[in-house]
Structures are given as C-alpha cells and as structure tokens.
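hiii, so i know i said id send this last week but things got crazy w the move. better late than never?? heres the sequnce for the chain we talked about at the cafe, plus the structure i predicted for it. fair warning i was half asleep when i ran it
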Amino acid sequence: MKIKIFLVCLLVTHFLMAQKPIAHFDFDNIRVERKVVDMVRGETYIPKEVFGYVQDVQSGMVYDLEGKYYKEVNGVSGKALLLDGYTAYISMMEGYSEEEEDEELIRSIPEIVDGNFTIETWVALGAYPKNVCPLWSHRRPVDEGSAEGYSLEIDAWGRPVLMVATLDGKTETLIVDDRIKLNEWTHVVASYSSETGMSIYLNGELKGNRNFVGDFGTIEYHEPVSILIGKSRVPMRPTGTIRPEGTGKSYTYIDGIIDELKLYDQVINAKVISKNYKENIPLEKPELPERKLPSGPKSPGVFRAVNTTLSYYPGWDAPWAVGDNADIVVQFDESDCKFVFWRGTSYIPSWVTENGIHFNNGFNEGWNDHGSCEPMSDKKTKYSSVKIVESNDARVVVQWRYALVDVLGTFAFEDPETGWGDWTNETYFIYPDMSAVRRDKLLSNAPNAEHEWQESMMVLAPGQRPEDLLEYDALTLANIDGDINVLSWEKETPPGNPKEPENKSAQLVNTKSEYKPFSAIRAQDINYMDVYAGEIRREVSVFPWWNHWPVAPRPTDGRYANFSDRAAHASLSHWFWNEYESDDRSMTKIMLCGMTNGNINDVVRMNRGWSYPAKINLNGEEGSAVYRADEKAYHIDMDSELISFTLNASEKSPIVNPAFVIKNWGDDEAEIKVNGEIRKESKDLRVGFKHTLESIDMIIWIRHDSDEDLTIDIIRK
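okay and structure toks below
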C-alpha cells in the first residue's frame, strides 16, 4: 500500500514538474532606463529617451516595454504591471539575454508554439478595451492574407476571446458569456489542443469549450510576427461606432494590471488550473487609480477664478504636454459648486454641483464630410484655449476660444483662399449667485449657415450611469409667464418637440443634488427647443449615452456606451434661438445659465429680470446708462463725484441681483447707498475693479430681489 501511495505521489509530482511554462512574466523586476538622445540638427526620426524592459524569467530574455505610462504595482504574487490603456504594451519581436557578456546581442523570438498550448494570467481591468485587445497575441493579421497563430484577447464587452488559426485558412474563435469584472483580480486561462479543443477558464472554472475540424496553423511560412501583450496588432474602429465616416481607426490597448503571465506548450489539467487559482487568490484589491472627474478642492469660501492644472489619473495625464495653469476653475463662496474649464472636456465648461455632478450647455457645431465639427472633436485641445479676463469680488469673466473642427482637424466652412474656417469666442460673465451669461460669438465665413448652438449634456465619471445622476423627471420647462411642464423619461422618451408650455424659455435640469443646473433664453429671442430623442437604447439606459467624449483621445465623434467603465456623456435637449447681434462675418447669441437650489419659478423670475430689465434713470446728472443683456449688467458712464440712478421695477421687470459697470471710475474707494441707506461691502454688496488699457472700471453686484424701484447713490471718497 505504501508503495502505491509513493508511486502516485511520484507521478503527480512528475506531472506538475512537467507542466512548467515555456515563457513566464512575473513582472517583479520591471526596469526603466533613461538615455540622452544622440541626435543632430536636421534628423527627422522621433526621438526617445525613456526605455522600459520586462524579463521572461523562464528564458532570461528581456523585451521592450513601450508607452508613455506604465507602473510596477503590487500584484497577485510580488509585483505586477499596470498598463495605461492608451499607449503602453509589450513587444516581443527581438530581445536580449542579460546573461550574455554582450548585452546588446539581439535574438529573435523563438517559434515556441506549434500545436498544444495554454495561456495563463491574472488581470485586473480598469476599463474594457474599445475593441478586441490581446493579453497575448502571436497571430498574423488576417489582412496580410494568411491565417496563422493564436491569441487570447478581451473584447469590448469584457469577455475573454480565444482565437486559433488553422492550416485551411480559417480563424476559429471561442467567446465565453462571462464578463471580467472591473477593478477586481480575475484568473484567466485559455488552452487548445486537437484532442481537447479550445477552452477558457475564469477563476478556476471552465466557462467555454469547443472543438473544430482542422490543424493548427503555426507561424512558419512567412515573415516572423511579434508577440504582443496589451496592444492590438492592427488599428480598428471602436466597437459601438455610430458614425464611421467621423471615426478613424486606432490601436486598442489593455487598461489595467497584468500579473503572472505564463505560456505552456501543452494543455494544463483543469484540476491544476483550479489549484493555481485557489492557492493564489489575492487578498488585496488591485492598485488601479481612482477615476474621478476633477473639479479642484473644496471651495475655501472665496468667489474667484483660478488658473490650475487638474489631474484625472496618471495614465490619462501622462501624454499631455502641459504644465502649470492648463485649466480654469471658478469657485463660489456660498456653496461648493464650481464652473470648470478642463482640457479633458476639450474646455467645454461644466457646472459642477456640490456633490460632484457635471453638466454643460455644449458649444457651436458645424458639419463636413467627416461628420461633426465641434470642440468635442478636438481631442487634444489643439484649437481650444481658455483665459481669465476678469476676476474680482463682484464678477468673474472667462473667455473660451475654440475652432469648429472634425476629428481630423478639418474646419467647418473653411475658406480655401485663406485657410480660415469657423471659430467661436464664448465669454462667460459669472456672478456670485452662480448665475452667468454666455455670450457666444461665432466667427464664420457664413454665420447664417446652419449651426447648432446648445446641447444640454451630463458628463459622467467612470462608474456612473445617467440614471445615477438624473431623476427620471429630468427636465422642468417653463415660459416667461410661469407655465410649467415636467418631462419624464421613466416610461418612454418624451416627444422630440414638446408642445407644453408654449414659448418655453427656461429649463431646470433635475440632477440628484441640492443645486441644479439651469438655462434660459430671453423671451424675445426664443425660437424653439427640442428633446434629444435620437440614439436611445432604452434596454441599456433610458437616456442617450455615449463615451466617445470626454477624455477619449482617439478620433471618433460617435460611440455608444454599454457599460459605466469609461467617462461618458448623456444629452437631454437643445435650445434654438435668435441672434443678439450679427454682421457679415459673425453672429452672437446669448443665454442665461448657472446653478440654483431654488425651483423653476426662481429661474423664470431671473429670466424676466434679464429679458425685460428694469429701466435705469440717471438722477439729475449728465452721462449715459444702458443695460447690456450680454453681460447682465448696467453700464454707466459719468464723470462725476456722485453717481445717482434709479431702477424702475415692476412684476414684469423685476430686479434680481443687479450688476453695474461704472466706466472710467478709477481706483478710488466709493460710498454706496441703497435706497438712501449706506451699505458696507459684504456678501450682499460686492465691489471689484476691472483694468483695461484705457481705464479702470468699477464693478458692483448687489443681492436684491424686488418688484419695487431701487435707487443707488455712489459717492467718490
């Protein structure tokens, strides 16, 4: 009996020893070297100064680790390799052995699989690939005219895919139904032999198996093919592409962590696979970075605009050639809401609620043969920039300039003689009550040509679905008379052209937050509005949902989101309205926007005061006074030691937190009386100064909500 037990143990030991991998990357010794480029003026190759290397510990061979960002992190056993999902991968075409005296001795990879094989690894995904992407690929591209080799890949739904080429020119595929969970360690094993067929295991369990007729097609009849880990061999359009004419082909990368990657030249027994999983189940969560849309730190209780550089997460940040002050954050002193101009959204500015929900009113859009021409297509902000024009206690002004370009950088309505196409200058006049006027000036060879000027969009972080941010009763609409209609997406999508109320001019977006975004059009400018009723898949989300923007660097202007693995956006409505002013080369439109913890009636009242402002009358002094709706401010130009004026309000023309620009005032202090009472500067009365080349203007903002007349006296001290 003892002899039998001994023989069984001996056989098991021999069996396990025989199942050693022929390639094994444990990623415990990732090496990075930096070398100064030896380059002379006039050379045109792309230089490189940072070199990464990983070692196959089974053979001792060292291979190239490419990319802008990769990192050694804690793994299942020892260390693991974090790949950024945008640029990082391993290429095994040529390597060298550190054991050789001459470390520059180059060796081509061996043709190590010609039949049976098993690929085993641990992976933790931060996001699903945008198309199929290999964990291990030694398979010739089909478009080269020959089916050869094999690969283990992950598709855009997070499912493992095993591909095996055959000698009769086919590529056999096994896809399992189970999806790899995000932000968790998963043990993935794939194997093939002519006897057992193709098999895929997840966390020690067999999830799929199939046989096929045909012999394995090894790579031996043509030029060698590299082994790729973490990068697709050919560029492809993303799975879920909506408009292929506006989407370029690009490489797909693994976004996540890989550890203990092994290749065997035989099929590993199912019991051994289960044992390998159970004995190595990680106790710690994978070191994947948090992916939260940035908006800066908690407000310090100061109303201001700040130049800063906002970080998303290291893998996304790394390729950006920016330094300090790349972005702008507007902070408020009475809430933790913000107004953010971030390059990750192509500087399309987002109102951010106190609990971090992002919303924006879009941009100008034109079209050409490649699709949409808009800042959303400008993935690297090559044609988009922001600057702080004004930041004082009473007002903040930020200008955003952008080009209307497609994903290839081609302009809308480009003049072939000058090379100039459509540009836009959007200037935001922002006040302490979190209201702002968007002055949107389109600079165009054909300003009257069809353009889109606004789109109500939610911006979602990874892990968020539209339903997580929005109530099903997502929009409340109103007209200037206060007639209201609430639109719900719960049972069905609202009609594309909602009839009620008539002449709608204000909307409140019902986010799951205390403060909610609003927008409004002057009653005299309104044309119509619509609900975004296209590209909705109610089985996925009741709201339209895409992830080709934000933070997506590849050239695409349309991709459906199926999962909350990536930053995304969802749209609700469009405003269509008439211009504020125009000429032969430009058109300007204005809208009111911001955040409120009130209701739609508060927005309607603010819109009345903006659309039909209280008339201003100068009291016994010469000068000029005019209301500028594009700034939501009265401009007063008087050369006097005392400036006195009255606003004549009514129910139709209420006074709601008025602002005043006193031209050429200088930097003298002022005593301000409101209805005869001296008022000191406070959160309810704010004073700031604007410096121009010609003058110093004083800005005054007053918290005041009334249908009664208001008299202001400003006395120079």
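btw The radius of gyration is 31 Å. thought thatd interest u
miss u guys!!
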